[in-house]
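Retro notes (design track)

What went well: tokenization of the new backbones is finally stable.
What didn't: we kept losing track of which sequence belonged to which structure.
Fix going forward: every design gets posted as structure first, then sequence, in one message. First example under the new rule, 84 residues:
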């Protein structure tokens, strides 16, 4: 009987009942953290939805990230000059 008295919560309750159930992330930061922790599988479609962009926009971001830094900076400067 003393073993039951040492458990949190009412008798017969699960010891982890005070912790909320895991649920899928509802923002991009939590989603990426869940993917790193192995709780969710990385999906471009889901990531784009959480960022609020199209999948093609996300693909463009990935392609821009692959550019060498010097080339990326040169392209940004060229775009800025065109907009003036």
């Amino acid at each position: 009987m003393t073993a039951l008295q040492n458990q949190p919560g009412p008798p017969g309750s699960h010891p982890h009942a005070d912790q909320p159930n895991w649920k899928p992330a509802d923002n991009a930061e939590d989603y990426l953290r869940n993917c790193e922790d192995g709780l969710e599988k990385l999906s471009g479609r889901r990531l784009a939805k959480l960022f609020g962009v199209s999948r093609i926009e996300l693909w463009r971001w990935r392609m821009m990230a692959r550019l060498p830094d010097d080339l990326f900076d040169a392209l940004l400067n060229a775009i800025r000059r065109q907009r003036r």
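Added context from the reviewer: The chain has a mean pLDDT of 85.
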